[in-house]
Amino acid sequence: MRNLIIFFRRYFNFFLFLLLEVICIVLVFQNNNFQRSAYLNSANNVSGKLYDKYNNVQYYFHLKATNDSLVAENTRLHNTLGTSFDTMITSNGFRTDTIRQYSDDTLHKVTGTRIRRYEYFEGKVINNSVNKPINYITIHRGSAQGIRPNMGVISSSGVVGVVRSVSENYAVVLSMLSKSNSVSISARLGQGKEMGSVHWDGESAGYALLKDIPKSAKVHKGDTVVTSGFSALFPENIPIGYVDTVTIADKSGTSFNIRLKLATNFYNLQYVYVIENLLKDEQQRLEDSTYKLIK
Amino acid sequence: MSILLRNIIRFVFLLLIQVFVLNKILIDQLVSPYLYMLFILALPFNLPRPAVMLLGFLMGMSLDMFMNTMGLHAAACVFIAYLRPFIINILSPQGGFETTQKTPSMTSMGVSQFLIYAAVLVFLHHTVFFTLEVFGFKNPLYLVLKIVLSTAASLFLIVLYELLFFSRK
User: Fold this and answer.
1) What is the architecture of the domain spanning B3-166?
2) Which GO terms describe its biological process (chain B) (predicted)?
């Protein structure tokens, strides 16, 4: 027993070193776990507030670019307003509100009910990185304002990422710029509707790879690639990027390797929109129970 | 200024510089300079080893908190904090450094000695950090290049820092 104590005291430094390293490694591995409660990350109070202060200063220098993007977004929204359409088809009933459609006659019957599927929240980016293998974005909007993990995040120009963890007033978004197998976005060609998936290769913050597009598809430089709407994270037809170069991995392969120019400019991201899919849980439950049945 | 106060100020200062200046600098995917481990390099010679390791752990964790890399920086910091006394032993002259100066710096160790000391520890830190960060040896050339280039950039910053704050002694 005495020898044991002497042994421990003699190598105390080494054991302390091992203990600390093990703690670190465990933390690193826990970090890989996609679902993780928000503690000790940039969503916590100290660093969140500091980033907030820092952003107040930095934000000023981006005012011009931010204004430009807001104006562009306003234009786009104006274009989708009801007042910018002519009523061409009169038999199709009243313009719908988001809840119900009524018949056109005097009976005023309900002909269909459309339920809201997506809800958008805006969020201010207070921290962002583009040069790490896995990049995170911290936004100033948290659980108190309705953000929960696994919501999709877009910018005014395209897809940004997925909410990973939230605290009361902040949320950390796993950026699309993450070189990890778990981060892939279900995509399709805007023209031909062929399905594929988008990964980031870790090289440049402006580009990503689109895989699994069959060789039969017609792909041209500049074609838009949009979200497929299958993943329950993003609605359909949100731009991901534009085709830059098309290569064939090997001659016997059946799919293209397409390099995309990303629609979102990650370098000057200031505002993002977090999307809540109100029907997500239902879809998830149905899919899960079906998988279980087959097993 | 007492040693304790000076180290506390250095801790905060280096952390802020790292988070708000260096992390915002985009040179290339291959070059990401780190300065914060200078805190561990510049701890007093006579500090007990467990204390050095715990302080290294604290420094790494604080930075991890800001960068969402739980444990990565802490692992690298604890690693160099553990190896620091060995490097100092190898580099120290017969009587040890403690007799002349209390903390490692260019003036107390001599320029070349300090450069070797810093280069070895920074290289070790970057090796551990980037290996853990990339996690895998899929692309060894990329990893080696990244370690070497980042070490060079970090060393450059450390020398600048030393020249700025210690030259007048």
Assistant:
1) Orthogonal Bundle (1.10)
2) regulation of cell shape
